[in-house]
Amino acid sequence: MGKLTKNQKLALAKIEAGKAYSLSEASQLVKDITFTKFDASLDIDVRLGVDPRKANQMVRGVVSLPHGTGKQVRVLVLCTPDAETAAKEAGADYVGLDEYIEKIKGGWTDIDVIITMPAIMGKIGALGRVLGPRGLMPNPKSGTVTTDVAKAVKEVKQGKIDFKVDKNGIVHASVGKISFAAEQIRDNVKEFVSTLIKLKPTAAKGAYIKSIYLSSTMSPGIKIDPKSVDEN
Q1: Nearest in space to 69 (alpha carbons), one of 146, 163, 194, 166
Q2: What residues does 60 pair with on adjacent strands?
Q3: pLDDT digits (tens, 9 = 90+) for 97-145
Q4: Residue 56 CA to chain centroid, in angstroms?
Q5: What CA–CA distance (Å, rounded) separates 137 from 91?
Q6: pLDDT tens digits for 3-24?
Q7: Do residues 111 and 74 touch, judged by C-beta distance below 8 A?
Q8: What is each CA distance from 205 to 48, 165, 209, 213, in whole angstroms?
Q9: How many alpha carbons fall within 13 Å on the CB side of residue 179?
Q10: Strand order across the beta sheet in which 170-177 lies
Q11: Distance between CA atoms of 228 and 7, rounded to whole angstroms?
């Protein structure tokens, strides 16, 4: 491991080893230990007491963050011609069908979210090998396969994100930017964790929320006391 920079040492000095901070404390602390010159992303990692290898313990869902993600989300809508105008008016960055399917087949994936309609899924199935590994495949469970593409575009642009537990039982998501006020960070984290709790599988036994860590792009992780998420 290389030597720590001056800012890394300053950041680590502000974190008390072994301490689990309240959500309110962590929301301010993550700002205090971030020294990047750019608007760093805020990331949350929640370890769940589930076995993702079992279908009845898979955790996947969507959440609309109260203050959005702070990111410019590039949205592609693959739809029939009659839905194109509504998709464009809702704020979609790219709208079309066959021409974009061909572009994706050629390797183009310069987008963050793809929204489509049930009637179009037959054409998109062949793109699975390109879109699947990048997490771009539209899915009804995440709201990206819908008859109301305009509504879906607006929700994504306003801060709706989808998430899924990984093979290690961890859910990772981006919940804002370091430029957010501490109260906005707290609100977003609270909404995200609350959504996870609502999705607890009935087959999951023992402690469900095992640990929560909050960090920015280049900061150390801050351990959060799960009980504090329920506090106002």
Answers
A1: 163
A2: 164
A3: 999 999 999 999 999 999 999 999 999 988 988 998 888 999 998 899 9
A4: 22
A5: 20
A6: 667 777 777 777 888 899 999 9
A7: yes
A8: 11, 16, 11, 22
A9: 8
A10: 170-177, 41-48, 209-216, 222-224
A11: 28
